[in-house]
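It is worth pausing here to work through a concrete case rather than discussing structure prediction in the abstract. The textbook approach is simple: state the sequence, then state the predicted structure, then interpret. We follow exactly that order.
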Amino acid sequence: MMDNVQKLFGDSEGVEDFARGYFDYVGQVTRSIDVGEIEGCVSALLKTQTQGRTVYVIGNGGSASTASHFANDLAIGTRSIPRHSVVSLVDNVSILTAVGNDYSFDDVFVRQLQLLANPGDLLLAISVSGNSPNIMNAVDWANENGVRTMGWTGFDGGELRKRAHAGVHVPTVPGEYGPAEDAHMLLTHLVCGYLFQAEKAKGLK
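Step two, the predicted structure:
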């Protein structure tokens, strides 16, 4: 099955033509996102903040980079008072390799949650396919132990979209990782940008 990026390349007459088509397509993808889901995401983050709870963020590959970036922007970039307590579970290489080697790569996130998470915390799982075993193991454990779950997904949403309490879905063609990951990064800046501006506005009152 040909995805839209492959078709764009086939139809383009060069880099400039491909670039224009790619930008247009990513815009089409982002406009298809339900903004009500984004409002739900912001509300969940604010609830976690006001209750003094912690946000944990996970992902694989490109989504791991987004998870790390989101944790940075939420913790530092929003400049909120009280601060957002946020932990990226993708950034400790020693833990990831120890759990992967001694147990299973499928356990690299759930074992960290078992050590750190408490009821009322929030788990943000970023997965384009929504079907990665290590992601779903963490989400299932969180659901069973009082940790709220949110999924950022692509393609058809996979199991993550079905099992997470809430989420933001980016509808894309199966296998089309690039535009979905672009949208997830845009969500990072949109959500944290809103929280930053809201904090500034609060300080002016």
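Step three, interpretation. Residues 177-204 form the longest helix (28 residues). The CA atoms of residues 72 and 86 lie 8 Å apart.
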